[in-house]
């Protein structure tokens, strides 16, 4: 009998298993994958996520893989240009990192095992075990091996957007919206542009950042209705998008860029939240909450809310408070803390700015001080309620002499 079973051991499940095992609980963590292995990802870890890795004693391991630090960020949205970097975090982190998932996930899985969690790789979980209406365990097997059953006081689904745990418990979705775009990405040699996140006219975007093995991840995004047209010639379409957004970078890409792996096309799931707790179960990571990858917050949020769930599950497991009460607080806090990021991501990932965001970001680009706050917001270090505060925006517009008719201090689209 385990205290906790975690289904899924990537960026949400492995840290959760590690944190609970470090508190002395008997933890089983299973994943149908074996490690190292790849999975679709932006790779991007914000400073807030790196601070968590640092607090867990794992940041040095990531840095030691040779993944290069990024200390200057380049954002454009059509003709709005914002460049810079957030101030260092409280623990001195002054960069972001974008490690390959073959590297990052293995580090996390190994850390879970080193912390005392029992880890079974290659283990598929087709069904849960119920005791009445309460989840009591899992049933599955390694490969074609014999079926095995394990029981626990709490079963946590960290098994992604197609979560078996979510399906088995009938977790209802809420606060959802349709995904707007598709993404193609791959890995390139001969690219050295620094970190780029560039959205151009014509509802298209390209992004690039350095990762392991002296390679760059290069990704492009367009609206879903152009997917069939794009996939007819992915290499040509990637070049076209970069050319149209930044001809100078497009010329460099044509001259020196060499794709070294196959393309990863992604039609992302819709944005959603799911009911993330119930009798004997909880959800974390994309199993419970998913948003468009445009803002690159998937890994950082997986870390952040994995830590939150570990802390509150501990209160239930230790008897400090009823488990159902602790898990209810986890869902409430996750939704409250992620609300601004979720709303912002859903809005700007449409590849067109609302008048509100256009005015805010345009004015931000005109103020060095507010640009630094923008990168603090992106990094998870500057509070959204202050960045988007009505008085703060009014002061920003006054500082940069923004036209009166174009000043927006209230996001009426979000309130509608």
From TrEMBL:
<protein>
    <submittedName>
        <fullName>NAD(P)/FAD-dependent oxidoreductase</fullName>
        <ecNumber>1.-.-.-</ecNumber>
    </submittedName>
</protein>
<dbReference type="InterPro" id="IPR002938">
    <property type="entry name" value="FAD-bd"/>
</dbReference>
<dbReference type="InterPro" id="IPR036188">
    <property type="entry name" value="FAD/NAD-bd_sf"/>
</dbReference>
<feature type="domain" description="FAD-binding">
    <location>
        <begin position="2"/>
        <end position="339"/>
    </location>
</feature>
<dbReference type="InterPro" id="IPR050407">
    <property type="entry name" value="Geranylgeranyl_reductase"/>
</dbReference>
<keyword id="KW-0560">Oxidoreductase</keyword>
<dbReference type="Pfam" id="PF01494">
    <property type="entry name" value="FAD_binding_3"/>
</dbReference>
<dbReference type="GO" id="GO:0016491">
    <property type="term" value="F:oxidoreductase activity"/>
</dbReference>
């Amino acid at each position: 009998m385990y205290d906790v079973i975690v289904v899924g051991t990537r960026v949400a499940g492995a840290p959760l298993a590690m944190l609970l095992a470090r508190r002395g609980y008997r933890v089983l963590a299973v994943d149908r994958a074996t490690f190292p292995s790849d999975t679709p990802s932006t790779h991007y870890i914000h400073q807030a996520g790196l601070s968590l890795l640092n607090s867990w004693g794992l940041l040095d391991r990531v840095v030691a893989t040779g993944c290069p630090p990024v200390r200057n960020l380049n954002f454009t949205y059509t003709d709005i240009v914002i460049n810079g970097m957030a101030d260092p975090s409280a623990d001195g982190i002054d960069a972001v990192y974008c490690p390959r998932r073959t590297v990052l996930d293995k580090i996390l899985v190994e850390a879970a095992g080193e912390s005392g969690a029992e880890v079974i790789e290659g283990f598929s979980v087709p069904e849960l075990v119920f005791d009445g209406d309460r989840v009591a365990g899992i049933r599955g097997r390694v490969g074609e091996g014999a079926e095995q059953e394990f029981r626990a006081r709490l079963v946590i689904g960290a098994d992604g957007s197609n979560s078996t745990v979510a399906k088995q418990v009938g977790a209802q979705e809420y606060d959802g919206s349709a995904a707007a775009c598709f993404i193609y990405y791959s890995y390139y040699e001969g690219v050295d542009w620094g970190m780029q996140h560039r959205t151009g006219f014509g509802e298209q975007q390209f992004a690039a950042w350095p990762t392991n093995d002296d390679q760059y991840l290069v990704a492009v995004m367009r609206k879903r209705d152009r997917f069939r047209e794009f996939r007819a010639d992915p290499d040509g379409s990637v070049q076209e998008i970069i050319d149209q957004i930044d001809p100078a970078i497009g010329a460099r890409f044509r001259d020196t860029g060499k794709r070294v792996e196959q393309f990863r096309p992604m039609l992302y799931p819709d944005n959603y939240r799911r009911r993330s707790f119930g009798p004997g179960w909880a959800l974390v990571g994309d199993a419970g909450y998913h948003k468009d990858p445009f803002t690159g917050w998937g890994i950082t949020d997986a870390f952040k809310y994995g830590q939150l769930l570990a802390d509150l599950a501990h209160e239930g497991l230790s008897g400090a408070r009823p488990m159902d009460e602790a898990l209810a607080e986890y869902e409430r806090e996750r939704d409250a803390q992620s609300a601004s990021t979720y709303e912002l991501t859903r809005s700007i990932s449409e590849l067109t700015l609302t008048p509100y965001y256009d005015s805010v970001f345009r004015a931000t680009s005109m103020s060095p001080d507010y640009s630094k706050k923008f990168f603090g917001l992106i990094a998870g270090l500057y509070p959204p309620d202050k960045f988007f505060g009505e008085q703060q925006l009014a002061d920003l517009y006054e500082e940069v002499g923004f036209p009166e008719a174009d000043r927006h201090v209230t996001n009426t689209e979000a309130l509608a």
